[in-house]
TrEMBL record:
GO terms for molecular function: fatty acyl-CoA hydrolase activity. This is Unannotated protein. Belongs to the thioesterase PaaI family. SUPFAM superfamilies: Thioesterase/thiol ester dehydrase-isomerase (SSF54637). The lineage of its organism: unclassified sequences, metagenomes, ecological metagenomes. Gene3D superfamilies: Hotdog Thioesterase. It holds the Pfam family 4HBT. It comes from freshwater metagenome. Keywords: Hydrolase. Residues 60-133 form the Thioesterase domain. CDD domains: PaaI_thioesterase (cd03443).
Length: 144
């Protein structure tokens, strides 16, 4: 499992990220879409997008834009885990859709492959929560 390769957050880091993606807001895009944090470690995060009709495209499978949003949001705590301040901005994101997500939650794991002072390079994988089927992969670059 990818998560096993990463160290836990400190108590202070964990307390900071515990409220993500809500933080002190009643709503935002990630909350509106229904993203759920499952695990955050140093340089790693896993989030879930529960399956619901509003996330589907007309053919009845999860919309690629919803999957891309899940990917983009999942890497934020991986990028920001040790930083806990400032902003984290997507510079680039390349998504490869390998298979459809249909009638199941989507689960995304995102992690840092290389971290600099102001740039982080990330990878992500999205799988069907029930089937375990690899549905999308992505590479991202973030400005810290």
């Amino acid at each position: 499992m990818i998560a096993d390769q990463f160290q836990p957050l400190t108590a202070e880091q964990s307390a900071f990220w515990q409220q993500f993606p809500r933080w002190e807001q009643d709503t935002n895009f990630a909350v509106y879409l229904g993203f759920v944090v499952e695990e955050i470690k140093l340089d790693y995060a896993r989030m879930r997008l529960p399956a619901r009709q509003e996330m589907n495209q007309p053919a009845g499978i999860m919309h690629g834009g919803a999957i891309a949003s899940l990917i983009d949001t999942t890497v934020v705590p991986a990028v920001g885990g040790p930083v806990m301040s400032g902003s984290f901005l997507t510079i680039s994101m390349n998504v490869e859709y390998l298979s459809a997500v249909a009638n199941e939650d989507a689960v995304c794991e995102g992690w840092i492959t290389k971290r600099g002072r102001s740039i982080a390079f990330c990878r992500a994988e999205v799988r069907g929560a029930t089937s375990g089927k690899l549905c999308a992969t992505a590479s991202l670059v973030y400005k810290i």
